[in-house]
Amino acid sequence: MLLIRLFSLFPFWLLYPVAEATAFFGYHVLRYRREVVFENLSISFPEKSDREIKRIAKRFYRQFSQVFVESIKAYRFSKEDWVHRVPLKNPEALQNYLAKDIPVLLMSGHTANWEWPAFSIGQQIGYPMEFLYKPVKNEGFDKIMLTLRTKHGGMAVPKDAAMREIIKRRKKPRLIGIIGDQLPSIGTEKLWFNFLNRETAFYKGAERIATLTNYAVFYVNTRRTGLGRYEITFKPISAPPYVKGQTGIIEEYANLLQGTIHRNPSDYLWSHRRWKYTKAEETEKLSK
Q1: How would DSSP label each residue in 63-114?
Q2: Which end of the chain is more exposed for a tag (fewer CB within 10 A), N or C?
Q3: Which tens digits make up the pLDDT trace of 232-270?
Q4: Which of 220, 218, 212, 219 is nearest to 242 (CA)?
Q5: What is the tens place of the pLDDT at every residue in 45-101?
Q6: Helix (H, G, I), strand (E, B) or coil at 263
Q7: pTM given for the model
Q8: Residue 165, number of CB atoms within 10 A of its CB
Q9: Bridge partners, residue 186, by sequence
Q10: What is the DSSP pairing of strand 190-195 with strand 198-203?
């Protein structure tokens, strides 16, 4: 962590050239997951030419590298930095519920900068921020990311323990962040939708949490407004009272996320192996 602390002291004017060099190396030399990136883009946007796909891919590598250095730089951020760099357009949408002691679920995806919003929202809204996360296999990297993510007061809750931990504090007004576009494991409870031009599985956890606790659910739309600057808008997905099995929370989330991606294709995490199996393949595997 000493290296992270030292690196976070560097000014942005020095960090962004490092990000540019990293993006160039990752795309042209290391060719980091280029096949995955091009396959994901080509299937998601069949109407785009090869030239357009290549341009989006290059922009993605630049954006991905920027997110990495921005995450480290944020280690030194204060509340004033968050207000300046990641303003909230309509915080009152959440505060109306929190003021009534009703917690709020915030659903987002791997778009624009997916690390900064949680830090910024918690600092500016003034309520505790919890986020569900799926531990990565590399323990060293996982430890670094958790340190960065909890530096500004956030509480990390592993997905496997999420329901139990949330029920413990179900009446405590707070924010619960969920990045809901990760690939569910085979055999876990999920819903399937047409997303980015293919059959896609989504975790059902957010819907289960909302209906069990009667929490309001919002989509966090993060838009890049400049280098190292973003803007957050909260869009309502659903609110209690809920009718069991008829909330449509996950489907609406998928639709909103898809809209965000279509508006700014290069800002999505295309190197993620999001589509490893189909619904038919899961059914076949589970039946053996």
Answers
A1: HHHHHHHHHHHGGG--HHHHHHHS-BS-THHHHHHHTTT--EEEEE-SBS-S
A2: C
A3: 999 999 988 887 766 799 999 999 999 999 999 999 999
A4: 212
A5: 999 999 999 999 999 999 999 999 998 898 888 889 999 999 999 999 999 999 999
A6: helix
A7: 0.92
A8: 15
A9: none
A10: antiparallel
